[in-house]
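Action item from last week, closing it out:
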Amino acid sequence: MSNDSSSDQNIHISLDRQCLTLIDGNGSVLAEYPISTALNGPGEQDGSGCTPRGSHYVRAMIGDGQPMYTVYRGRRPTGEIYSPELAAQHPARDWILTRILWLCGRETSKNRGPGVDTFRRFIYIHGTPDTEPMGVPLSHGCVRMRNDDVIDLFNRVTTGTAVSIY
């Protein structure tokens, strides 16, 4: 269920502050969430493991109606629900949980197009295990959020919502 006024909203992601801010059309802060971006820092190159900068938008939203802690692989629910026991069985898995907001770059040759394409790099805003720290860059390029927070964000925006990563 999405907010009808979300087309006027923007998502600002601060790599320095490790913070995602939802802003309305008047510039007022609607919500602020701690996040975790790439361990490798900012960057746009394919295979870099970096979080891409610049102007983006939410191209697809995945997981509406799924239970919290739903596990995704290839953007599809696996049928698993994340738990410490499941984590112990798969210690090397990069967990994508609860909801996915799949990002697409708007800037040709910077974050869109050959070698630098955010969408083709599968860069998402997504849930992560609650044991993962926020405020510390640790991801493989995506923007990780607490599961409660990613559900809250997901319910406030729609596809097409502008996303600025800086």
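Closing note: The longest helix spans residues 147-156.
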